[in-house]
Amino acid sequence: MGNYPQTLTFLAAHLVYSDAIQTVITVPSQFGNGELKILPESLTHAIPMVRFVGFSSDILFNCIAEAIGAKRVVVLAVAIWTGVLLAS
User: Fold this and answer.
1) CA pair distance 84, 87, nearest whole angstrom
2) Same domain, yes or no, for 51 and 83?
3) Number of domains the chain contains
4) d(CA 84, CA 88)
5) What average pLDDT does this structure show over 19-48?
6) C-alpha triplet 54, 60, 63: angle, nearest 5°
7) Are both 70 and 88 inside the same structural domain?
8) For residues 73, 76, 82 and 84, what is the CA-based torsion angle, rounded to 10 degrees?
9) DSSP label at residue 37
10) Are 47 and 28 in contact (CB under 8 A)?
């Protein structure tokens, strides 16, 4: 890997990204059932609905990226995510 320094950077970023995605996939059902006491039947409907909204947001961010550039969209997404986290 000494000849390919960006490979190590990519692998580290992929590890962090994969871990974050796995967390987003697994934690909502645990949180909804354990903390919010939502019945599993309701979670069966709520989680796919949230994923659909996320997919729709992906398409929206893709359109915005085509208009203003990918780097600006990533910064915008991080700013929105930070705002959501601070508000909660």
Assistant:
1) 5
2) yes
3) 2
4) 6
5) 86
6) 145
7) yes
8) -100
9) -
10) yes
The amino acid sitting at 12 is A
pLDDT (tens digit per residue) in 40-78:
888 888 888 888 888 898 899 999 999 999 999 999 999
Distance between CA atoms of residues 27 and 50, nearest Å: 13
Phi-psi region of 38 (alpha: psi -120 to 50; beta: other; left: phi over 0): beta
CA distance 16 to 32: 24
* pTM, entire model: 0.57
- Examine the domain organization and report whether 33 and 57 are in the same domain: no
- Per the structure, the complete domain to which residue 82 belongs is given by 44-88
Q: Answer whether 77's CB lies under 8 Å from 60's CB.
A: no
| Residue 73, token pair as written in the block | 């969209």
Both tokens of residue 44?
A: 């069966």
